[in-house]
Structure prediction request, 471 residues.
Amino acid sequence: MFKYIKWELFDFRKSNFRILILISAIYGLFYFIPFSNDGFLTTLIALSFFIVIFVSGFSIFIYGSKKVIDTFRKPTFMLESMISFSPYKILLAKYLLAILLNFICAFIFIFGILIVVAKMSTFPKALNVLVELFVDINIIDLLRSFIYLVILSTTFTAIVTFCYILSRCLFPNRKGSIIFGIILWYFITYITEEFFNFISLDISSFIGFSILSIIRILFIAGLYLATVKLIENKLEIYS
Amino acid sequence: MEYLIDLDNVTKTYGNKTALANVNLKLEPGKIIGLLGPNGSGKTTLLKTLMHIIREQEGVVKICNHLTGYETRKYISFMPDCEFLYETMKISDAIKYYEEMFSDFDKNKAYDFSQKLGLNINDELKILSKGNKEKVALMLTLSRNVPIYLLDEPLGNLDPLIKHEMLTVIKMASNPNNLLLISTHLIKDTEGILDEIILLKNGCVMNHISVEDIIKQGKTLEQYYLEVFSHV
Prediction:
């Protein structure tokens, strides 16, 4: 299972090497070029920088799920299908892969924010701001928020993956499957969020947080098992 | 006699189209068998059914006496007719991938086959020609030590020299304990290595005969093929 993740990350690193270098260059240029330089290049770098931050922030929930769907669509799915791995293990590996890729987006986003903070202040002052931030933060709250974000993003991945696989099984023809998948995704997400609004537990309390997390984890587990059954019994590769 | 592949009344349909119709086959080890038929005859569907990538609707498929499932994939090394490796890999990465993912993979055999096929293991897959990509796929497939090898159109549209190299390697991989099932429509090219042929049309097995019996009739494989299909 971890070898599968390793090779997917290998492919991710090699495919996105130039993009990662570009992002590093944009971040570096944004930090080092003074604001007082008012020219086309400065504007371009600033614009690129904020686009990267916006896209990475937006991608924190979505990128990992998108990559999981890609693992079922790209030619290497045929390779994956030759291995006698249990579908339970492979799907779990894909969920973990989604979490790792979301982390990468989160890292790019947070690092970008830190660069903005550092840019706004002198370096020692920026450091003080960061230290004060970490001292003031309740570690337990931080950990809870982190765990809940991971659970939320995995819920999104589980819903999207289930919808995609079900639509592929029911509609091998691509066009039909996209429309069905989107409608199903919207329906499941709407019902799920209405349910959580209905039970309206206070996530800031320990009990509320625990119950919400357990319910979401059970929901993920249910979708996971349903997706595995579809992969085992229904999903076929025609080309 | 234990059959490595046992299909019992296997049928597969896609909507109105019948891809496989009541296929009955029992295949023994120690043979190189050609799965011949025109385009759309069901050759690829049959191979994918053996791999449990496509599910049969009716009938029973057994691999080494086990019903097909993801577990029976460990008995089969499959070379599909499409690209299936990570484009970002070098040939050496692909060998390492197979070594890590398949416990039956023989790295030394892989390097040996790479040499025989004239491959440079430091080349990236994305810069390789179609022929060399086919060679990589064949090298990886045949470097696993399994009872069954399924090769789907391994020769494709390759030049005669590459075809000859690949056929030599395929012949080397055969032994009394394994079975090679090669799907192809290139009859003349594969005639020299096949022990038996299965003729498939519209998902039905027209005939399953040894090449020796065809030769005894005073015919070439191509003549026999044309004779069978012209009477349909």
User: Anything to note?
Assistant: Chain A has two domains: 1-136, 137-239. Chain A has a mean pLDDT of 85. Chain A touches chain B through 26 residues (CB under 8 Å).
